[in-house]
Amino acid sequence: MTSSPAQPTAPVEEPEPPLPKRRKIRKGTQSCWECKRRKVRCTYASPADSICDGCRSRRTKCVSQEFDDDGGTAQGAGQPACQSTAATARDLQRVIVHGQKDTARPKGSPERETNPTNACMAQLLLSTTPSGNHHDAVSHALRETWPRDEELDLILSIPVRGYVLYHGIVGKPYSHFFSDEMPTSPKAILRLPSSNSHPVLIARKLLLLASWLQGIPSGHNATNGSRSNDVYYSYASRLVNTVSRLVTSADELVSSIEGIECLMIESMYLNNGGHLRRAWFINRKAMAVAQMLGLHQGASSSATSYLDAVATRPRIDPDYMWLRLVLTDHYLSLMLGLPQGTLENVFATTKALADCADLERFERMLGVAAGLILQRNSVKGLDLAYTRRIDKML
User: Fold this and answer.
1) Could you give the C-alpha distances from 37 to 72, 142, 183, 251, 329, in angstroms and in order?
2) Residue 6: exposed, middle, or buried by beta-carbon count in 10 A (0-12, 13-18, 19+)?
3) What is the pTM of this model?
4) What integer best gives the mean pLDDT of the chain?
């Protein structure tokens, strides 16, 4: 007696995941959980946007209060934040060492262990008032992204013009900038601070390294064991994103001269990468911090505004830093058709230009002209006499 062949079973359809439950909220409320936790205003560029301006800048998950809060983490879908951050740190090493973008570790390749407790990005982002322990955790997570010595030597062997480390963030007059007082060796500039340094000081080095990587010529040939440009550009982007998540998006960390400098470098990096709106937003944040410290009034000379006055004072003049912030704001606002952050236009007076180098004089006059154009554009109607005045200056 033969048995009948088994009948094929119909495939079992998996049930669709349930839609997130909507919560009852007050009529007119339009804000996300992340902004509520940070106690900041939640704004959207347009009513159709699903991500608010704050979460877009911080690169965090934007969940409306209409839905249940998922804990405020900024991890990827289905992956715990601690594991995600640890994987990010390891992936940064793979990108620069092995030239790979995938998350699978190559067979036999070395890998540094990352402490998921210290590198847990979500917990750090949820800390509104970081303590010393939290500072240590941020510093550890930042240092994990720094390349090994042999990797850094490989990066610095690529012919890159050293000015990429200074462009847009000049903190002293050009007469000082081109003097022998400024360090000229990229290796001396790109030296990681000690492990007990403030997170902002470590973040500054990471941003400078990203600027160096961004400055690699597009026609660079991957020879002598060096990687392709895409690998370096990807690594630079990861460095900036890490600093943005852990440092520059935390207002309490950037409230210093060095913090403003980090914001300026990040804005410069975004501008050079063609992300002008994000560059404008970050530079405007730097201006706000500078105003809170009194830079616009020339009242920031006290040591309390510095994290490391001994190292920072020789390269940053607060008054000159404010000048660079305003000039950058004028340029980005003019490019984007947005209003300027300040009407201050005293940088090209006869007194201000008296001891300036030619290049600095030129930049100051361009900045003032840009400010006048922005002021003219904000007024309805065309003032021909005002336009002729700007034209004469140019």
Assistant:
1) 8, 24, 42, 14, 29
2) exposed
3) 0.65
4) 75
In sign, the C-alpha dihedral spanning 369, 375, 377, 380 is: negative
What gap in Å lies between CA 288 and CA 284, rounded to an integer?
6
Q: What is the pLDDT of residues 135-151, one digit of tens each?
A: 888 999 999 999 998 88
Mapping DSSP onto H, E and C, the string for the chain reads: CCCCCCCCCCCCCCCCCCCCCECCCCCCCCCEHHHHHHCCCCCCCCCCCCCCHHHHHHCCCCCECCECCCCCCCCCCCCCHHHHHHHHHHHHHHHHHHCCCCCCCCCCCCCCCCCCCCCCHHHHHCCCCCCHHHHHHHHHHHHCCCCCHHHHHHHHCCCCCHHHHCCCCCCCCHHHHCCCCCCCCHHHHCCCCCCCCCHHHHHHHHHHHHHHHHCCCCCCCCCCCCCCHHHHHHHHHHHHHHHHHHHHCCCCCCCCHHHHHHHHHHHHHHHHCCCHHHHHHHHHHHHHHHHHCCHHHCCCCCHHHCCCHHHHCCCCCHHHHHHHHHHHHHHHHHHHCCCCCCCCCCCCCHHHHCCCCHHHHHHHHHHHHHHHHHHHHCCCCCCHHHHHHHHHHC
Q: Percent of the chain scored above 90 by pLDDT?
A: 22
pLDDT of residue 278: 96
- Point out which residues pair with 22 in neighbouring strands: 67
Pick from 145, 189, 200: which is nearest to 163 by CA?
Answer: 189
Given this model, what pLDDT does residue 13 score?
53
pLDDT in tens, 49-66: 778 888 887 778 888 887
Phi, psi of 343 (to 5 degrees): -90, 5
